[in-house]
Specification:
FAD/NAD(P)-binding domain; six-stranded mixed beta sheet; 20 strands; alpha+beta; eight-stranded mixed beta sheet; binds flavin-adenine dinucleotide; D-Amino Acid Oxidase, Chain A, domain 2; 12 helices
Amino acid sequence: MSAVPELPAETDTVIVGGGVIGTSIAYFLVTETDRDVTLVEKDSIAAGSTGDSSAIIRHHYGEKEHYTRMALWSHEFYRRFEELVGEPIAYEECPRVVFAEEGSDDAAYADAGYDILSRLDVPTERYEGETLEAEFPMLSLDEFDFAVSDLTAAYSDGTDVASGFARAAAEEGATVVTGTEVTDVAIDEGEVTAVKTDDGTAACEELVLAAGPWTPQLAEMLGIDVPVTPSRERVILLDPDEEFHDKYPESVPIAGLPGGYYIRPEFGDSVLMATHHSGEKVDPDRYQNAPDQSTLLELHETVAEYVPDLDDAGVQGRYSGVYSNSPDHDFILDGCGPDGCYVACGFSGHGFKQAPAVGRVMTDLLDAGESDLVDLDFFSLSRFETSEAGHGGGIAY
Ligand SMILES: Cc1cc2nc3c(=O)[nH]c(=O)nc-3n(C[C@H](O)[C@H](O)[C@H](O)COP(=O)(O)OP(=O)(O)OC[C@H]3O[C@@H](n4cnc5c(N)ncnc54)[C@H](O)[C@@H]3O)c2cc1C
């Protein structure tokens, strides 16, 4: 068995955080540049939000075409993950559906995404009337007039992907140090010079903070204000009986449900149901992992209303995870604070599906200061200097 690597005394770039974002950045930095890269993770790979992720991959983002384009790039990477990264990942295609009432905000969102997907030749379908009910017989859809389906959406697994990126980055020459916490950063004449940990110091020229919900507290040590709020999201795995599977061999689509929930099939035979942007602010080091009884009742009520044949399903598992929400729910990908310091956070419930693109974009940022995949100005931290709300909205898209 090979030994866990130790923190090197010197390296070019330190990435803090071994979630799907930090590991993706490590992979792209080490494969696309000649930097000596060290990733430092205080726990184990995927121990943070990534390990709890529902790992849904979809392309419909309403009118936000830049996210659609990033998601398409990332999804293509995920489809070829084993070929490109050399590591297998769990992966299953499953349509993702937006249901809407004519004239509502949801309708405008659904149709804007439909138009963009159609224009970009991404398989999509709009269902209404009888076709709506025929297409989704497992759902009770009385209150909706139409649905837009992102036909080639999918889901995967956060731990698989982060572990795959981390192993591949290590094989390409990166040092991946786990069980080591970054405790301080040394700065000299306005430049990052070293990272201090509970297991020694590594001299470095660049530092990337990709520490998910812990990023604000790390950034604060450097005098950088990162306005990201962690929220607890609750997840329940339902265990449908055989009758449900016989009646609906394809289980459920990936879909948002009224009240701030979504469902998707889970690997194996269960159905995952979770909250999205619960608004329940938590400390990422201290939150109740198991959803309480009132959550179970609430989720069951929603199931009974919208997926009636799941009403009797048993509960196979329950846990919570943490979103890192920026005020406008847009990502923060920027160089800020002392020279050599970068931040990648605020993924607001969308970091998994975009992780490959984020790894590439951050590599472009460190290497060239710009990216041909996205307009980096959109993701700047400085947008919060002119307005606390950033781009505004904070929409739970
Ligand atoms: C329940 C749930 C469902 C989700 N579903 C989806 C989905 O369907 N699709 C989607 O796209 N996204 C989804 N997300 C969001 C997505 O999972 C996250 O955006 C993504 O995992 C964030 O990854 P990260 O690497 O930024 O953060 P994390 O995974 O939190 O990684 C940060 C890491 O930094 C480490 N760390 C922190 N401080 C230090 C330190 N001082 N020193 C060293 N290491 C440190 C932590 O231990 C942690 O491992 C979901 C999230 C949750 C919680």
